[in-house]
Amino acid sequence: MCHDPLLPPAVARATEEYRRLLAEHGVTWGENPIFYVKSMATDAYLMGTDTFWDVCHAMVAARHPDLSPQERRTRLVQLDMDEIVRNVLDGRVRDNLAALRLTPGGHTLEALPQAVLDDRPLRTTLLLDSARDGRTTVTVDGETHEIAPRGARLVGITSASEVVADGRRVDLSALTRPAATARLRLRAGFPCRWSVHGEHEQGWYPEGVPARRDYHVLPYFHGDDVVLDVPAERLTVRVTRGMEYGAAQVEVTPAAGEETLVELTPERLYDAAARGWYGGDMHVHLNWAGDTVGLPEHAAAIQHGEDLHVLNLVAGNVSSPRVYDAEALAHWAGRDLPWSDATHLARLGVEYRNDLLGHLYAFGVSAPPGRFHTGFAGTADWPPNATGCEELRGLGALLGYSHPFHAAATDADGPEVGLASGRNCTAREIVADAALGLVDSLDVLSQTTITGPAAIYRRLIGAGNRLAVTAGTDAMISFARRGNQSNPPGWARVYARVDGPLTAASFAEAVRRGRTFGTTGPWLELSAGGRGPGETLDLSPGDRVPIVVRSIGPEVERLEIRTADGVLAEGPPGELTAELIAGDPTYVVAVAVGGPHERSLTGEGVHAHTSPVYLDVAGRHVARPEDVRWCLDWLDGLEAMVRDLGVFDRPGQLDDHLALYERARRVYRSRLAGA
């Protein structure tokens, strides 16, 4: 076995194992085939579409019309992923997916022709799409594939493959078009994110670099003074560098056989570090199955190319006991990763996971924990997440709940939200853990829905829980094409105001103190009575509090000032002011929103949200009765859910959960009594 000499031996061995798993099993790496693992096979072909779940549920309903919606969700795992791809695309072809349409009268090949240089073979995927009422067969490179009536099959091919349908060879010439080779040299003066694409948005990359696509299906890679082979034809070259920069773009037609230099520099929109603020992504995976193997050198190039100040690479499992990057965590725990510098800090952390109770990120751990997950592959949902929090806290971790909701949610929902599609990672236990002071933050911004977590975050702080806003994208470096999870890390960030130099300890302390805001791009400032996020104003009834909110970023459409009672003021971007007269204890947060924008690598548009400035009145903290009762109702619903859906294999395990919820109830009841 050949190991990378630049990697520690245990990390090199793990990397070789990941390569073997990818070669043997494809994108799932052989993980336990629950539905979201099976759906990985669709991700590379369905980027830019938004009907996946609608199609899945329609397919189940058509096959099982007499079952209840709850019973149908158990049938999702039985769906054929290749048929899902065909049905979602509904006749479209993609740059990485041609289609052989098998009709009752014959067959036709549909494709977006891809440029090939110097007769280099094209590797792609062919969708065998049958509209026939009977079974049919297609032979690809000597292997026979049987297609069910009106079925579909995805098959890997090259432009030199032999495909036989209806007894004759299929002409694959429509897959490619020859192009003369040219060379581009791209230079910005510092590491950046580059995109080079031509006809049909075909992407071009330096040799050996993963062919990554972002949420907008735009190809990208990172570096400076990089060289790549391209076709000698009109190309678009685009450069940017994370959310603190704009983008610059140029059209270029390089000459065949020559090297063309493109010097392009993105404009800086704001400089957070110069103000003492540093942006981090608290939830990034180096490896988590995928269509490539993530290497430390990939993470280094991305972090510097995105000017991401803090990168938390988390070790975690997928659907079975294997914990990806556990070896890297064991080697580097408690230490900055080798490419860190004065303004770029990378650490190995943890994703602690239970799909009924929620997932947590841990940043700054001094050593690996003894347990990374519960409740997978039929194991018990025990102990409660609170036990994992206590262990990780003992290892020095900054802790927060990640991607709180994977389904559209509002603060009118209870803990059952999202269960229509089976167990998921909704942050259900946070209502208990926040009351008991076991977690520091909530990832209000993540790769899933944003508006729901923001509303529920405000419920939690309104009930007296002092939690910081954080952001964790769940970006996966081992996925080159997977919706917003193949975005570059840091497309959403938590900015924290740090005292002194940037270190893991100073950043974690700033987050614990709530000196943060989360954003998908805009800069957002909040001042209430001269205090910023995480600070407290001690007021008397009738005191007047001036509030100022400022934003930077072309994508912002509206600013809001919110208190525990709702929106206090709203207005256009730039600056918004208001005045509050102290009455009941409350908090003040700022929110920036906007519609879809090229700078926002998510389908939910533009969002930024600060942590609160707390307004204590006559020595009392905010504990809005409506929000406290909401938390108590949530705990009642959580108890009922865990009794019904929790998996336990020993007496007393359920009791540990119930005891946790009762401890949290006592905290909330005491707040009601003191309100």
From TrEMBL:
SUPFAM superfamilies attached to this UniProt entry: PHP domain-like
UniProt cross-references to Gene3D superfamilies, sorted A to Z: Metal-dependent hydrolases (3.20.20.140)
Origin: domain of life: Bacteria
Record-linked NCBIfam families: CehA_McbA_metalo
Name this polypeptide is given: Uncharacterized protein
Taxonomic classification: Bacteria, Bacillati, Actinomycetota, Actinomycetes, Streptosporangiales
